[in-house]
Amino acid sequence: MLAPCLLRRAILTAPFVFVVALLVTEPVRADQEAGTAIPAESRPCVDCHAFEFMQRALQDLKKTAYNLDTRTETLLLQVEKRNLCDCIAANLLN
Q1: Can you say whether the dihedral through the CA atoms of 89, 92, 93, 94 is positive or negative?
Q2: In terms of Cα–Cα distance, which of 31, 33, 15 is closest to 23?
Q3: Is the pLDDT of residue 16 over 90?
Q4: Residue 56: left if φ>0, alpha if ψ -120 to 50, beta else—which one?
Q5: What pLDDT is attached to residue 11?
């Protein structure tokens, strides 16, 4: 017997609580600013950001490739120099 009474009370109380919550909260007016809004005309598009990001990534890859190429060339010259020195030393011993 107690369960139907509680159920009926809950069904009647829920809408009342909802209406009170709506009345207590302050409505948002149209003249209120919701943060700093940037007009769409002055915002760069997402594709522009992606393009700039890809350009920077490509520049970084070019720098890395150049550095690797330079390092490889330096290492090859060191190996050639070492082989040449070993060859000269071997010829002097014979």
Answers
A1: positive
A2: 15
A3: no
A4: alpha
A5: 72
pLDDT digits (tens, 9 = 90+) for 33-91: 556 666 666 666 767 788 888 999 999 999 999 999 999 999 999 998 888 887 777 77
| Alpha carbons 25 and 29: distance in angstroms, whole number | 12
Count of residues making up the chain: 94
Is 80 inside a domain boundary?
A: yes
Half-sphere exposure of 89 (CA within 13 A, CB side): 6
Number of independent structural domains in the chain: 1
CA atoms of 65 and 67, how far apart (whole Å): 5
Helix (H, G, I), strand (E, B) or coil at 25: coil
Q: What pLDDT sits at residue 49?
A: 80
Which domain does 71 fall in, by range? 47-93
Instruction: Flag whether 29 is in a domain.
Output: no
Give the tokens for residue 57: 């990534």
